[in-house]
Design a protein that fits this description.
The structure holds 2 protein chains of 2 kinds. Chain A is mainly β. Chain A has strands at about 10-15, 20, 30-35, 40-50, 60-70, 75-80, 90-100, 120-125. Chain A has a domain at about 40-125. Helix content of chain A is about 0%, strand content about 45%. Chain B is an alpha/beta fold. Chain B is built from 15 helices and 11 strands. The chains are: A mainly beta, B alpha/beta.
Amino acid sequence: MTDEHPPMEAAVYGDGSITYPPHPRGPDGSEAESTIDLSDYNAEIITWTTSTATPPGVRAPNHLAIVEFDVDGEPVRAIGQLTTDDVAIGDRVEAVYVDELRDPDAGIREPDSQAWDGYRLRPVDDE
Amino acid sequence: MERVALIGASMTQFGQRDAWVRELLSEAGLACLDDSGVEPAAIDHLYVSNMASGEFEGQTGIPNALAHDLAAMPAYTARIDQTSSSGGAGVYAAWQSVASGASDMTMLVGGEKMTHRSTAEATDVIASLTHPVEYKHGVTLPSFAGLTARLYLDTYDAPRESLAKVAVKNHANGVDNPHAQFQKEVDLDTVLESPIVADPLRLYDFCPITDGSAALMFCPESIAREYTDDYVTIEGIGGATDTHVVHERADPTTMGGVVDSSQIAYEMADMDPDDMDIAELHDMFTILEFLQSEDLGFFEKGTGWKAVEEGRTDRDGELPINTSGGLKSKGHPLGASGVAQVYEIYAQLTRTAGNRQVDADVGLACNVGGFGNCVTTTIMEAN
């Protein structure tokens, strides 16, 4: 985690469950009680792909993964761009900050409607 | 609650069409009026299933436009948008309008005009359904398919070729569907050697971008008999949602919306998966046919690929799946697809499916929006 970057924020709900991204209500309907920064943790690759037919403003090829963080025994899943396609299911990754994951002005979505920075996923031994 | 009957159906040629969405909807609507023998003035409710006519071509207000073009005023109209499952959601709305007694004659028309957009643009319109944390990473529906396919193959030790065999099967079925976008067989090597789109999936694992429209006419069973003896009844229908954020699902190879919507439909119909003679599944990507065939209860979890390998879902198999050619071969004009699935079941149950006719009295259609985000399952029976 870096103090100068926005956190990879996940919500912790009343029943102890954690989701990324945060929602107004958790899986059991309870409100979020706190947040955590997933970039403080490593994750395991659940599955991954390389997308070659990417939409406007997206890098090509686009390596993507669904990963699972272990936050003190509570599993939390996330999706994100990979830094490389030299990975396999079960590999460990860490979150590295990128100030623009996609060109906000190229796609259909209103640029001001959401954030465009975030975290890519890098194998823990990838220098 | 009186049973709801289908007394007419139509679909346009699917593919790359010169017509725009309003014209496509009118074409299917007029053909459905002809097929059912219903006068436009008899229509109480008129629903239009469509995902994105505003985004694709800048045309909104299409239900009212269609009512005018069909001379169906003063019918109540509404647009049904549930992304790729807009058609199935339209079937639900049309069924509900009749079952509730609000309408004695409801027409549903689904349609989409897409091919004037590039593949990248169309992919982005569809991907706009994703959550911001997905969209900013460039996540698309095809990339969800690649992620899920890799996990499925790894988890269930399924061979890559089994996915290709879904494409081969559905293209073979599409040869006998005169409305299909592709009426051409493909062989295994063609699928396996086509360009990678979302590893491990290749071009022929994906449905095309399509223009087209389809329509259905619904009424109470007591009124159906005034029009025809060859009608189909809706015995069960269920709709359900799963998480908007796809990665939050505990098991990415299970589509909770398919499980939940089918359980509602089976219970309403007082039937179970073994009662189905035929099914149209939402094979926007080959992997989805495995997931749905398992989550609908046709096959045990992790064995849908074996059923395809063994030919059990072929047209002459024990449970023919996607006799229409599926979205894979027939095409996928978003708002039309769920309507066209029911059109195929209707055609099969009324013995009007031509060269692709199978012996079936009960059929199921499963229409999926997003990557399993919203689902409608409909069970139909021949009169």
